[in-house]
């Protein structure tokens, strides 16, 4: 047992329901296999929801975990760290991408300050209820945070997931916010998959060529510094992740333990998923990948997890937006599986 997350396999979505859903899919009034991956998506959601004729998801709940990162001081982002608290306020005001997309889909959006480097004066107290610390150590030269902070953040993430599930979620989306966070995401993925800095480094918010060179160096230094610590995913989170990453890991592992499906977002959520799957083997069966981020580390991690993204739109916003963009596809998939006539109903 490490922190709040047990290292034991989680129960898989119902195999019986999956088999019944597949039987129904194959019997629909279409040529066999005609729905392609949309049909596979419907079978996945059916198994997760426990019904071979699922509806929805209707109660989509998004949680955006915000945190700053010490590495941002090394010019690894195209934007200043002040954007993080400003965007937390923009999510709360309803003007952020995730807020607008969430509203258009009838999803709730909750933003939480886990490690923002600001006191966020005046925001509702609930937003900071799970705050662990301000920012993180610069991972190229020091640990992101302590083992105790990681334990607190893992437990916070699990509690946040439980709250969203208690509130009735039939689909969860995990989003992120934090200038510099594509750097620890790349390090977590590189360290766990044994990939080098050049392979996992991407342009994040859109850094230029000198910035990309700097970022690759920082990621290389961090990978060298944490070498040997990937064997213990909880220790790796302290070394190279941070409190917001640990909260995401706790959230994803808890969603799987509670048997609630999650649509994954970009490189940050997928770095958290790769880590959570090691702590809670089998959790991956409760997740689907919403979209392919432009970050190369996300593709590497998705491949390692055996997940194929539903969308590939060149998006790189984070906040959970790439996952939300796939919600209409998921709703289409369940509508088709549950609502279509069967081939046997045809007057042939
Ligand atoms: O989700 C992604 O794959 C993704 C890719 C690039 C950027 N982001 C977002 O942009 C911020 C991190 O980018 P950066 O360049 O500051 O590391 C952070 O707020 C993320 O939500 C997110
Ligand atoms: C404006 C802005 C909004 C974001 N949302 C998530 N990451 C972000 C980064 C920036 C710079």
UniProtKB/TrEMBL annotation:
Catalytic activity: 5,6-dimethylbenzimidazole + nicotinate beta-D-ribonucleotide = alpha-ribazole 5'-phosphate + nicotinate + H(+)
Transmembrane regions: none
Protein's pathway: Nucleoside biosynthesis; alpha-ribazole biosynthesis; alpha-ribazole from 5,6-dimethylbenzimidazole: step 1/2
Gene3D superfamilies: 1.10.1610.10, 3.40.50.10210
EC number, as in UniProt: 2.4.2.21
Any one of the GO BP annotations: cobalamin biosynthetic process
Family statement: Belongs to the CobT family.
HAMAP family from the UniProt entry: CobT
Listed name of the protein: Nicotinate-nucleotide--dimethylbenzimidazole phosphoribosyltransferase
UniProt source species: Nakamurella alba
